[in-house]
Design brief:
- The chain is mostly helical.
- It is built from 9 helices and no strands.
- The protein starts with a helix and ends with a helix.
- The structure holds zinc ion.
- Zinc ion binds next to loops.
């Protein structure tokens, strides 16, 4: 292996470990933000028996495997969500570093992708997108773009207005099909991605939501009246648009001008 390859492999490993630790923190966010409790205090404990977790029961992935998915004290089954969130957070950050290197894009990825992972888990579990993530996300996305000169502030502000505005129209037209959480998430994605990649994110979310919604209806796993949260589709669309949004937008424009 060449020295440069070994260096890159080491960096990717470092980013992966950072992602695992961050994912472990996101699990705390996912459990506590919907309940409105502090994410710092008290320390982690088993939700079944309240036994506090010792440090070696709190190591990302490894502890879940070592404990075979059960609490050491009471034997209660630990949710698959914990190792899954850790693994996904590590994987998306490694992918982002491999794609972007040390850059403004990677900085955006380090903030946006973990936020989307947490929001997806919370929306799937509670059918709500927490303001505690989306509202600060809007100015943070704008600030990172301005501070790193990744895109002009105008792109980002138009993104906020398009993302929020579109959902406002949908909410007013559908009377309850979408919630205010989707509106704020749309605005947050616009702030981070800029309006061009935002349009790609919305397109992916709508296609994905339509296909998966149809499959859930057809297989009877969801009835016509059951709400299907849209947040996870927006999160996947937003993540994909961070990687390929500008490129896809370029294809659209190229196609229109031929
Ligand atoms: Zn327990």
């Amino acid at each position: 292996m060449a020295v440069a390859d070994a260096g890159l492999a080491g960096l990717l490993l470092g980013v992966g470990l950072f992602g695992l630790v961050l994912g472990s923190f996101l699990n705390v966010v996912i459990a506590r933000v919907p309940a409105g409790t502090s994410i710092v205090h008290p320390g982690s404990a088993c939700p079944g028996c309240s036994a506090p977790l010792v440090w070696y029961d709190n190591i990302p992935l490894l502890s879940f495997v070592a404990l075979r998915g059960r609490c050491r004290a009471c034997g209660m089954r630990i949710s698959w969500r914990y190792p899954l969130v850790e693994a996904i957070t590590a994987a998306v950050l490694v992918a982002a570093y491999a794609a972007f290197g040390l850059s403004a894009e990677f900085l955006i990825a380090c903030v946006l992708l973990p936020a989307l992972v947490a929001m997806t888990a919370i929306d799937l579990q509670h059918q709500m997108i927490p303001d505690a993530i989306t509202l600060p996300g809007i100015p943070v996305g704008l600030l990172i773009n301005v501070a790193t000169a990744r895109t002009s502030w105008v792109d980002s502000v138009i993104g906020i207005l398009v993302g929020g505005g579109l959902f406002l129209v949908i909410i007013l037209a559908s009377r309850g099909g979408m919630g205010g959480g989707d509106l704020k998430l749309g605005a947050m994605l616009g702030a981070f991605l800029g309006w061009r990649a935002l349009l790609v994110a919305l397109f992916i979310a709508i296609v994905l939501g339509g296909v998966i919604g149809a499959v859930l209806l057809a297989t009877g796993r969801r009835g016509r009246k059951d709400p299907i949260p849209f947040g996870p589709f927006l999160a996947v669309g937003g993540a994909m648009a961070l990687f390929w949004g500008e490129q896809v937008f370029g294809w659209w424009m190229g196609g229109f001008s031929v």
